Amino acid sequence: LAPQLVLGVETSCDETGIGLYDPRQGRLLAHRVFSQIDMHAAYGGVVPELASRDHIRRLVPLLRETLAAADARLQDVAVIGYTTGPGLAGALLVGASFAEALALSLGVPAIPVHHLEGHLLSPLLASDPPEFPFVALLVSGGHTQLMQVTGVGEYALLGESVDDAAGEAFDKTAKLLGLPYPGGPALARLAAQGQAGRFKLPRPMLHSGDLQFSFSGLKTAVLTATQQEGYGAEQAADLAAEFQQAVVDVLCAKALAALKQSGLKSLVVAGGVGANQCLRAQLGQALARRGGRVYFPELEFCSDNGAMIALATAMRWQRGLASSTPGGAFAIRPR
Ligand code: KG4
Ligand code: ZN
């Protein structure tokens, strides 16, 4: 049998991911993620040099595990896609070198893949996937973007954050409230014990009349609130809840405006903040009221993983949209 499988390699930040996708079956066969969170937690954030070194340690074992779980062999791989950016330069180089070297040894093409395209297409890994066209709300640690997605490779940017990304705002605010890294999930957990509305925080750019976002002021507003006389740690949960609600209100309002503007009914949410339950609930209700539908990636595909890179590679490959690096002279694009 001719090789047919697509291997995806993700090393842009602090997760090492390997995914194996079968385009003929249109199915993910297996994937494995190793998260470095515990290693970086002691430093309060990702240490790039440590991240690079750990990717080196993890890639080969993860590849073996993924192949074993899929009951596949290396010789079944027809194409290898890897994240070329954006991300940490050293971390990206590890994945790129690994993928290019493996491709060279197997005599198959290596395809550079944009990390955000992986996130964008990740909801298509679900059992009940959305159909094109849709509006995508991409909310990760590095990006907050609204895109009109007409097909694979057909992405029109509708709006984005002019400063901090939504995930970045969660992380920075969490730090400010004394929560451990990674801040987003920790802040969401704290918020669940509090009540929004007891503190009043702004909803930045809510009425800006466009689809741009701004989240850096919100973090400052939280800092100011903690410095008010009478503020005590017992109010942190209420403050966290109000912060989360402010971010979610703005994300929801702009996502709905993007749907209206583009005349589309389907919204796809991708990226780490897509794991936020408050965001999921509010968007779900809002879309149900309007006769639209919102699609979220499975929780395991919200954060960085190799499965979404394998899928993006496969979709590009099948449509003739992927090109390998000429002569294997690969380059990464950290920004
Ligand atoms: O997509 P992702 O895994 O990595 C990037 O490409 O950035 O997103 C990570 C971001 C982090 O900022 C993290 O704090 C945030 O997603 N995040 C959350 C939640 N889970 C992860 N933010 C809010 N609520 C969550 N439940
Ligand atoms: Zn990501």
CATH superfamily of the largest domain: ATPase, nucleotide binding domain
Low-confidence runs of at least 5 consecutive residues: none
Please, how many helices? 10
The name of the CATH architecture of the largest domain is 2-Layer Sandwich
Spatial strand arrangement across the major sheet: 3-2-1-4-5
Integer-rounded radius of gyration = 20 Å
**Shape category:** globular
List the helices and strands in order. EEEHHEHEHEEEHHHHEHEH
Q: Compounds present?
A: 5'-O-[(R)-(carboxyoxy)(hydroxy)phosphoryl]adenosine, zinc ion
Would you count the extended β strands for me? 10
Main sheet record: 5 strands, mixed
Class from secondary-structure proportions: alpha/beta
CATH class of the largest domain: Alpha Beta
The helical percent reads 40-55%
β-sheet strand percentage? 15-25%
Pfam family, one: TsaD
Cofactor: Fe(2+)
Keywords: Acyltransferase, Cytoplasm, Iron, Metal-binding, Transferase, tRNA processing
EC number: 2.3.1.234
